[in-house]
Amino acid sequence: MSEYHFIGGDDKEYGPYSADQIKKFIAENRLNSNTSVKTTGGEWKPASTYPELMSPKGPVTSPPQQKDISAPSHTSEYHFIGGDNKEYGPFSAEQIKRFMAENRLSANTSIKTTGGEWKLASTYPELGFTSPPTGTPMAGQHQQAINAQAAQQKINGPAIFMMVMAIIGIVGNIFNLGLSVFGTGLMGAAAGSSGGGMSDAQQFEMIANLVGGVGGAIIGLIIQGLILFGSIKMKNLQSYGLSITAAILSITCNCCCPIGWGAGIWALVVLVDPKVKAAFN
User: Fold this and answer.
1) pTM of structure
2) How far is CA 110 from CA 39, 98, 154, 279, in A?
3) Of 218, 228, 231, 254, which is least surrounded by CB within 10 A?
4) Could you say which of 3.40.50.300, 3.40.1280.10, 3.30.1490.40, 3.40.630.30 is the CATH number of the domain covering 76-136?
């Protein structure tokens, strides 16, 4: 039995399909006698040249305009926006139906076919979703999901930049902490080996160096840890206030690292965008 392929209204090839399936598409006005059709391995020809595909009365002289179709619904692949505002897919219609049955998706979920536009799940009858109750703000929820995805794309860059700078800062402060302790130990050992002991001024200097070095390193670790935590929250679109705080700290507490200023300024510019702010949980 021959199998057939056709060119859809989107200029893409679909198939293979049986003769009965092609005849069904023609009956539904999804294809017409002018549609380009070929058998598997054959050449493209108008559907009207295949008698076995046309009605017994022959091809219609003036066929209705072919609908702009994508693949028949059972061959389409779908993507959706999850509860974490991330895109998932592609999935078959059967998989999407299973997610619906498991209450993982709803009629308000944003869904698109591969290469298509985002729409509400309830606008795809082949997926079996039912329309939500009257008065449900479907369009608002749909737009909110799209805005959240755009905000996520904007925030990823500065958030990751700040995370990297914070990790570098943490490593640097750990090094400074060890250096302070080690340096103070060397001073004490040198004074002891001289046999003369340490004067009051030397003892004061050693203690000041120890307290200043260790204290400064610990404060630095706390600040960089806060920046790292805030940038992680920022990347997940959580805790807007903490994200702003982390960005400001990245500018004000990286006095010796202009690159850190850049990370903080970039983050602030993105965070003050009203659409980005609205996307935070």
Assistant:
1) 0.46
2) 37, 16, 20, 16
3) 218
4) 3.30.1490.40
